[in-house]
Amino acid sequence: MTTAKRRGILAVITACVLVALGLGVAFAVGDALGIRTEPSEQMRPAAAAVPDVAAPVSPPEFTSLDVPDTVRFGVALDELRDAVADAPAREGEASLAVEIIPGQEADSGPGDDGYELRGDASALRILAFTETGAVRGIYDLAAQVRAAAPVAALVGAHEPSRLPLRMTDLGAVGVAPIPAEWESGDDYSHASKAFAAVVQPEAPYIDETALAEAYADFDGFLRHSLANGFNAVAFPGFVEFVTFDDAPGGPVYADGDDHRDRAVALREAFAPFWERADQLGMQVFLRTDMLALTGPLERYLTDRFGSLDTEDPEFWSVYTAGLDELYEAAPALDGVLIRIGEAGAIYDVGGWDYYSALKVTTVDAVRTMLEAFSGQAESSGREVIFRTWSVGVGAVGDMHTNDASYEAVLDGLDSPALIVSTKYTLGDFYSWLPLNHTLEQGSQRRIVEFQSRREFENFGAFPNDLGTQYQWALQQLLAANDRIEGAWVWTQDGGPWRAGPMSLYLKSGFWQLYELNTQLAADLARDPDADVADITADWAREWFSDDPATVEAIVGAMTRSREAIEQGMYVEQFAKQRVFAIGLEPPPMMWIFEWDILTGDSAVLDVMYSIVRDSAGDGAAQGAGVDAAIASGAEAVAAVEEMRETVNATDASSWRSPELREAFVSSLDYELDTLRLLESYRAMILHEGQWHDTLSPAARDAWEADRAVFEQRAAEHLERYEGDLDHPAFNLTAAQLGVDRAERDPLMAWFARGLLVLALAWVVIGMLAARTRLVRRPGAAAARASWVASTRPWRARLETLGMDDLDRWLLFLVPVALLVATRAVQTSFRSWTHLAVVIGAWAIFAGVLRLCVGRRSPWPVIAAVGGVVVLRCIVTLVGLSFTGPGGYWFAFWTDPVLRTAYIAVAFALFVWVFVAAGWALAAQVGARRATGFVLAAVGAGLVVPAAIVGAIGLEQVLTLWNDEMGLLPWGLARILGITTYLDIPGETAWYAAGLGALLVVAGVLLALPRRRAEASGRG
Question: Which residue in 549, 544, 404, 501 sits closest to 725, CA to CA?
Answer without folding.
Answer: 501
